[in-house]
Amino acid sequence: MSSSKAKLEYIWLDGYKPTQSLRGKTKIVKDFSGKLEDCPMWSFDGSSTMQAEGGSSDCLLKPVALYKDPARKDGWLVMTEVMNPDGTPHPSNGRATIEDDDEDFWFGFEQEYTIWDISINRPIGFPAEGYPGPQGPYYCSVGATNAIGRDLVEEHLEECLEAGLNVEGINAEVMMGQWEFQCFSKGAKTAGDEIWIARYLLERCGERYGYKINWHCKPMKGDWNGSGMHANFSNSILRTAGDKAVYEKICEAFAPTVPDHIAVYGADNDQRLTGFHETQRIDEFSYGISDRGASIRIPIATVESGWKGWLEDRRPASNADPYKVAAVIIKTVKEACKNL
């Protein structure tokens, strides 16, 4: 009797700066159990990904999360962390910087992106020259003239759900050819894992359609919305506070840490955080109830629940690393909670 063989796609983040890219390669494993603990450590050539020198090029891939691959028979998606040969985290490994071992922090990321027509180097739906009609009709739209790219978006949604990702919704965004999906997870590391796997699946869907997925936070200059990755977050204190003063104290703790946050909130974010198009300026900080022009929005649902809920940091860009975003938010919130 022949043994069954599984296809394990090992996925990792390379060392490119300022924005890391996804990488992946396939390992064939006999009689795979379908359990994370049975995914072996693997290695790759770090000299080809800006993560090692040619004379000592091996980097390790440590499996950290496992999902069913919806596009491959007997396939699995293995999210990994990049480690040095001695087993310590590689400098490019943002996941290892998250301090949330008890999974007290919950994150809901709103990932915006633009489907890109590589034949004209513009968003799909845009003419080769000139521009479509101004923003307004495209947000949460329906119809062939406004909702451009739905086939790819729906295919991606189905694949995410089949993989077991906790995608909570999708919608067309403000600019033509721009879309969004939302993922929620209890635990910051899991939240980052799911965004990266969802990004991987979206990139792969784009391959089949011949489209690029553009993660840049301001892909079209001018009077067009940029792309963000709004970070909705809570911990047990925010979920149970019942006190406006607690929320204000935590929000105020973000003001002196603006440089630390902006440093990991995505490349070229100054092009997006201008104070226009539903953003606060990159060099200013504000918070407010239902204020989409603030750095941090206090959702009306949190207020109506008696100040029990979550906050939304609207500054992270679409190209930010969710691991690094979560890590810095956790650090700031933990510091604020010490004095409560």
Could you please describe the fold and organization of this structure?
- It is a single chain.
- Helix content is 23%, strand content 26%.
- It has helices at 150-163, 188-209, 236-240, 244-253, 258-262, 300-304, 322-337; strands at 5-13, 22-30, 42-45, 58-68, 75-83, 106-117, 122-123, 167-172, 178-186, 212-214, 229-234, 287-289, 296-298, 311-313.
- Strands 6, 7, 8, 9, 10, 11, 12, 13 and 14 form a nine-stranded mixed sheet that branches. Strands 2-1-5-4-3 form a five-stranded mixed sheet, with helices on one face.
- β8 (167-172) and β9 form a beta hairpin.
- It catalyses: L-glutamate + NH4(+) + ATP = L-glutamine + ADP + phosphate + H(+).
- One of its GO terms (biological process) is glutamine biosynthetic process.
- Catalyzes the ATP-dependent biosynthesis of glutamine from glutamate and ammonia.
- GO terms for molecular function: ATP binding; glutamine synthetase activity.
SSE order and pairing:
Elements: E1 5-13, E2 22-30, E3 42-45, E4 58-68, E5 75-83, E6 106-117, E7 122-123, H1 150-163, E8 167-172, E9 178-186, H2 188-209, E10 212-214, E11 229-234, H3 236-240, H4 244-253, H5 258-262, E12 287-289, E13 296-298, H6 300-304, E14 311-313, H7 322-337
Parallel strand pairs: 1-5, 12-13
Antiparallel strand pairs: 1-2, 3-4, 4-5, 6-7, 6-9, 6-10, 6-11, 8-9, 11-14, 13-14
